[in-house]
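User: Predict the full complex structure for these chains.
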Amino acid sequence: MPAPLLLVTSLDPEDEAAWREALATAMPGESVATPADPQAMRRAEIAIVANPPPGALAGLPKLAWIHSLWAGVDRLLLDATLPPVPVIRLVDPALARAMAEAVAAAVLHLHRDVPRYAAQQRRGEWRQHDVRAAQERSVTILGMGEMGRASARLLRAIGFPVRGWSRSGAGPDGIPVLSGTEGLARALGSADILVNLLPLTAETRGILDQAAFARLPYGAGIVNFGRGAHVVETDLIAALDSGAIGHAILDVFETEPLPTGHPFWSHPNVTLLPHIAAPTSRPSAAAIVAQAVRSYRETGLIPAGVERTRGY
Amino acid sequence: MPAPLLLVTSLDPEDEAAWREALATAMPGESVATPADPQAMRRAEIAIVANPPPGALAGLPKLAWIHSLWAGVDRLLLDATLPPVPVIRLVDPALARAMAEAVAAAVLHLHRDVPRYAAQQRRGEWRQHDVRAAQERSVTILGMGEMGRASARLLRAIGFPVRGWSRSGAGPDGIPVLSGTEGLARALGSADILVNLLPLTAETRGILDQAAFARLPYGAGIVNFGRGAHVVETDLIAALDSGAIGHAILDVFETEPLPTGHPFWSHPNVTLLPHIAAPTSRPSAAAIVAQAVRSYRETGLIPAGVERTRGY
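Assistant: Here is the predicted structure of the two-chain assembly.
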């Protein structure tokens, strides 16, 4: 009988139990244990993690690899006690589709002036503004991973001119993708709407700061569906207050849940979402983890993982 | 020298002047007059109209046809003094694209629970709700003209299961389209989100009433980008108050501008737009009218018009 899979999270007990059940359902031949089981701690080769408490994975004698239930592993990699085994992040086509839908909703929200009309409705004001066509509104997506590519394809299908920016400069067919510092300046300069889907790494932390905002066309819209720490929050508030940025749709924050009284809550030019752009789907994620575990049991090969130095 | 084109509107003077200039620019060889010019009234064969005052087109001795600058001609056809000449309505691909973008924005707004998160933001409440995929959200579009077809194609590209309902039962490739009373009942019964793009005719006036709302799945969303008179407003308010309809996005109303104090202004489950879903683009509309006039001058043939008894 193979060693149990070790599920390590800091989720609330109900949430963790739901994950345990989803994983058990997807892998009827495996047993799923938690750190409360000392025998599992001694024997486990595979840890399946969702926000594991720092240090929780240290000192597991047999640990061979770690599968994250999240797509973003930035928080996991910050744990200095993380053993030097491969880390696999969740790459889920269903997640990429959900993100592309969220991006399309956010971009169309800004494109069609929904925040302005909502403010008019609150004032009881009937006033029409010029409507631009999607083809006249350029969108730049920072980050061309699975989610960035799916979003770029969907925005292009709607009719927006789309360009990307990524470390490697690679993207889907027909989408121009820039890279490097020079490329970032150009990508920002033409962005009527800027969408951030970058992974959080040492290079991308704080990338959306005063200097970046100053490169955007005056009054541009911003969508942050990456990580809160990509944005220098005080710089963003200053840019919103000055009108340099017209409106921001924010799903992620330095501290989550966003603290009571944070200026984003009540800023008239902020649309705030509680980190729901692309939530992991339990059945879908469990099926993907199950596939990786099955492949490991059959072949002994560990699935391709995150490049630690790159951060994703 | 051909008879002048007669521009007849009830727009404000600045707006009418802008139309006159757009038409003159699109047709340098033609002269564009208004009813203030008695000689033009005697000679005009072609009237170009935008909300003409009732009776304004009666008694023009040479009038051969009328081109509307709007896509909807319901108000024009209600004028009992309208002479029995062909009426051409604006069919503009740019207008269909603008409508499809507006429909996509509205459907994604409802699909991604934007009104609910906006209410939470106002309360300072951080709470996540389940996210459904587009493929799990059925959309029904009433009306399969140029705008309905463009909208159906775009919603399908985003991933929504789409069906249509129309008088003829015809639609674009791969979109199932129902017709008739029985078909309407089925189209409503499966609509998580209902989009109205029908022309306003004797048959469609008041089509969205208590009986129609009762056929929708409980909590369905509604988007009315057709005409205000398609909706029985008191029935809609009752359905919103009971929760039978979860949220309504309304761009058109029985009376426009929507009167101060109308319950739609402040209803928590209404998103109100000031008739901006698909505004006519002056240069685009002027170019289309110019093409029709040029063809008439060259061939003497009047472009295909509205079927008066059908109403569009």
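The longest strand of chain B covers residues 245-250.
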